[in-house]
Every structure is written in structure tokens, then in C-alpha cells.
Amino acid sequence: MHSLAGDVIRQAFFNSTEGKLHKRLYIAICNAILSGNLTPSSRMPPTRDLANELALSRNTVLRVYEQLQAEGYISSRTGSGTIVTHSVLDNLDCRPVVSKDEAPAEDYSMLSARGLLLLEHASASPRQWGAFLPGVPDVANFPHRVLKKFYDRQARQLSPELLTYDTTGGSEVLKAALTDYLRTARGVRCTPDQILITEGIHQALDLVTRSLCNPGDRAWTEEPGYWGIKNILRMNGVDIITMPVDEQGLIPDGEVSAPPKLIFVTPSHQYPLGSVMSLSRRQLLLAQARKTNSWIVEDDYDSEFRFAGQPIPALQGLEASSPVIYVGTFSKTLYPALRLGYMVLPEQLKTPLKKMHSELYRGGHQLTQAALADFIREGYYAAHIRKMRQLYSRRRQFLVNLINDKLGDSFLGQYNSNAGLHLILQLSAGVDDVSLAQRASRQGILVRALSSYYAGEKSQSGLLLGFASMEETEINTHFHRLASLIREAQQA
């Protein structure tokens, strides 16, 4: 039996010829209702009749009606048939009228003051791979098949614990493997129960800040220093006190009128300048922290890649029960998308911070952590670091030679230690490094302006050049273009 509703649906159905039959019918009825062609209280055609009209199976029509009813488009009552619901009209009345060709305008007024502050200082690059991008390892040389072997092995003997939420601060086997590695390679003093696995440095810093600071508390950061730390502090209402850095690292303030709650440092390889904190400065900082009841947050982000001399031990292991929260990551040693980092917590903080981590972030990735533990315990992690240390050392020296040949040794920054994944190319005081970095970006060269790492007005002009992820031929090609831009900027 033909009906007006059936004719409306039939026309909408045959106007579309793409997609599976049940999908076409679903879209046809939705569009008819939302456009007003099928008004509220309109009686829907019986499923058998509609199936005959459209030459479909009745099961297909029943399936579509069930979906529409579940979503609130139609309702069915015994003895009354199926009708279009009134609630659809109510929802339509609440919708803004927007042209199909007009996208909604961005409305920053809807954001919180903290959100606006974060966006004002946002510095993350929209591109995370390319020539001279700092802080990026060579992910192409990672032994993915080896890690996959361990992943598959864990998957074959899967336990339910590996597939549920984690409330203990990470995989026990990974924490045990990390304890042995950190003790040997970094001189860190810890037991497995002091380790908390995180999803990278940012989560670790956010957890520390939320856990230990109230709004209005103070935190020391290095000047210049990593922008990510400052953004986390801003979002948590913590007052940032920038402390100058020299060739021995952060310079502590001997006369502290308002002591900091947290002191953020990168002692083994200062970011971004590259200086190493001296032993006397480390001892002074530890004494300062004990005196003011402050916590030192040690970011040991790329300490494994030191290309000359002995490794620099971690500040955390310099003395027993030190007031240091040690933070590390696998983003530089393995690859960033792994999203795994770790913290070594002082005994007083390990239980509360693990509970807070569980409440705030709901830890997971247990299967990946178990595979990574095997990767570390069977020697592949240390072997990979040794291989990449040699590779990065060669690439760094290649870039240094290019700088000396094309620009001159005066362009190498005074703090450039033979370590890490980037170096500083120092510019004359009058050169606008931000503008230069923008011009380079338009040519596909992703350098960072050194002045952007300073919070105060006093800053140095320079460029951060990452070299780890580039073959020598690529370094050579892109540096020639960058050198031309630098010469133009120096002469302007």
C-alpha cells in the first residue's frame, strides 16, 4: 500500500546511489526527517510495504528501523504503528542556522584564562620531522623487528593484567629492568618501587607540579630553558622564577627570600645551551634545596648521547636520599611515538604520587612495557644506544665541519658540549633569529630560534640545529641553503 511517507522515503532513497543498501535507506530517512519532509507524528510505512516499494528485503528495513528507533528518530507503539518522534523537532529548533559553505568561526572567548595563557605561549612545532628539527632521534635506525619479537612473545602468553588499567605505576618487570639500567648507566640510586612509568616528560612534570604545588607557589626554571616546563607551570598557577645559566649550569640564588617549591634543572646537558653542571654547583644546589625544603626535578632527557669523555652521572645519585625527582624518557633513545617515560621518586613521595598518577591519568600500555622490559634485559637497549651514539657523533662532527667551513668557528656557541641531539649556532646580537627561523621554515628547514627559550627580555640570538635524524648528504644539502639565509641576515 502506497503512502505519502513511503513516497518521500522512496524519492530520497533513489536520489542516492552510493553505499550499501541499508546505509542508503538509513541516510534517506534521516534526511527526510531532518529536512522536515517527514514531520513529527508522521506515520512511517510498515516495514513489509516499504521493503516491497524499494525492492529490499524486509530484514534490511527492520534493521534500519531498529537503528532509527535506538537513536530517537522514530518510536513504535503496539497498535499505533511507527511514527516520527516529537523530540526530533525540539532538537532541530535548538540548532544554530549555519550555511553549508560556512564553517563556525573560532571563538577563543569560550576558553578559560589558563587555556588562553597556554595558547599564548604554545611553542610545539606543527611538524615533528624534517631538516634540523631539534630533539628528534633517527627513528629509521630503530630495530623495530626486534621489539616486535618481544611484543609477540608477550602476546602469546597474555595475562589479563596486561590488558587492564594499571594502578601500581607501571609494569613491575619494566621497573626492575630500569632500576638495573639506571644504576649502571646513570648512577641513579633507586629500587623498583621508587619508579613510576609515565607517558613521557610532560606527564611527569604535570604530575609533579599538581602534586607538590599550590597556586601561587614558586618554581625555579633555567634561563634559557625548555618552554614545555613553563607552560605546565602556567597551567597550574605556579609563579615562574627564571634563574640564569652559565658554563657550570644553573646559578642558585644564595639569598632566597621566597624559597621555591620546585627547582627544574637539566644538569647533564643543559637545554638548550648544552653546558654541564659542575660538581661544586651540584653540591651547592642540593644544599640549597635541603635548606629551603625544595624539590629538585632533574630532567635527564638525552644524557645517553655524550660523544667524548666519561658519562656525566645523574645529580640524583650524588648523595643518599637526595631531594631529587629524577625524570627520563625513551623518546630520545628509542622513538617519541612510544610515549613512555619514567620517574624515580624519593621514598617520601612514591606512594602518594603513584596514587595521584592512577587517579589523574589511568596508566596503561602494559603489554608494550613488558616487551620493552625484555628488550632492555636482553641487552638490545644498551646495544642500540651504543650504535646510535656512534652515528650521532659522526653526524654532529659533519655538521660542525660544515659550520666551520661555510660560516666560521665563531658561529659555534660557547656552551656547545660534544653531546646531545642538537647544537647551537650563535648569531650576532642584532640578528632577529625568530624571523630567520621563519624564513628557513618556508624553505623546509626546521630550526628553532634560541631567543624563544628566554622568558626575560635579555636573550642571545642563535639557532638550534638538530642533526640526529639526518643523513650526511641531507645535512649537506640543507645546510648550504641555511648558510645563505644566515649570511643574508648577518648583512641586513
Automatic annotation (TrEMBL):
One of its GO terms (molecular function) is DNA binding. Coiled coil: none annotated. Keywords: Aminotransferase, DNA-binding, Pyridoxal phosphate, Transcription, Transcription regulation, Transferase. Residues 19-87 form the HTH gntR-type domain. This is PLP-dependent aminotransferase family protein. In the C-terminal section; belongs to the class-I pyridoxal-phosphate-dependent aminotransferase family. The keyword Cytoplasm does not apply. SMART domains: HTH_GNTR.
